[in-house]
Design brief:
Distance between the termini: 26 Å
Number of domains: 2
Number of strands: 10
Shape: globular
Largest sheet: 6 strands, mixed
CATH topology of the largest domain: 2-enoyl-CoA Hydratase, Chain A, domain 1
Strand order of the largest sheet: 1-2-3-5-7-10
């Protein structure tokens, strides 16, 4: 896969792929082309049987410092409607495999929203999160007003969205926005460690479990329990379930094949 604004390593580690945002001079600002490339890369990796977990990262200064304002500053409402930039985000949301965000430096605006599209987040001590769109006369548009309250609660979400101020990695951890904080130099090691912990499991079970957890934010408890039980039963049709339970009984490590 050849891209201009991202670097993709489908074999970054065993069963783990890496997508690195690569517009360093612009602090990885999310222009339309970059987001399209992220969408296409995720779709390709989702279809790659060798990949079980995907890591998305930026660089030490920034995961992504927001949307590319230069692309939007002269647009009117009809222009934005025709561009339909959020359809790309809708496709990203459909990724079935687990995604881990490895965040250092700024994760602002669209960058923060991209983090919230991921399933787990490892952050460095320098990470900062924010939805500063209000400071330029607009508001979050890629899920910031919807996913942020679900992640950190109404009070902090309102504070972040209405003031546009950033929060530190420490506060993000306390609020439940991220999973852990590590030194900058250990960011990728810890992200890969988490990814390996996922990737050693059945890829079919990973996808069905991810689907069930995400649906819990959209469905009623009754609907969520129905989906959970359906997915649980369906996994008994897989070879991985037979292997996993046999390995447990035989006190050995399972060898999952995604079948």
């Amino acid at each position: 896969m050849n891209f201009e604004y991202i670097i993709v390593k489908p074999t970054y580690a065993e069963h783990i792929a890496l997508i690195q945002l690569n517009r360093p001079k612009e602090l990885n600002a999310l222009n339309l082309q970059l987001m399209g490339e992220v969408r296409d890369a995720l779709k390709s990796l989702d279809e790659d049987d060798n990949v079980r977990v995907i890591i998305i990262t930026g660089n030490e200064r920034a995961f992504a410092a927001g949307a590319d304002i230069k692309q939007m500053s002269d647009k009117n409402a009809i222009d934005m409607l025709k561009i339909d930039q959020f359809s790309t985000w809708d496709q990203i949301k459909k990724t079935k495999k687990p995604i881990i965000a490895a965040v250092s430096g700024f994760a602002l605006g669209g960058g923060c929203e991209l983090v919230m599209h991921c399933d787990c987040v490892v952050a460095s001590e320098t990470a900062q999160f924010g939805q500063p769109e209000i400071k330029i006369g607009v508001m979050p548009g890629a899920g910031g007003t919807q996913r942020l309250p679900r992640a950190v609660g109404k009070a902090l979400a309102m504070e972040m969205v209405l003031t546009g101020e950033f929060i530190s990695a420490e506060r993000a951890l306390q609020a439940g926005l991220i999973n852990k904080i590590v030194p900058v130099e250990l960011l990728m090691d810890e992200s890969v460690k988490m990814a390996k912990s996922m990737a050693r499991n059945s890829p079919i079970a990973l996808q069905m479990a991810k689907e069930a957890v995400l649906k819990s934010f959209e469905n009623s408890l009754t609907e969520g329990l129905y989906l959970e039980r359906k997915n649980f039963y369906m996994l008994f049709a897989t070879e991985d379930q037979k292997e996993g339970m046999a390995a447990f009984v035989e006190k050995r490590k399972p060898e999952f094949k995604g079948r």
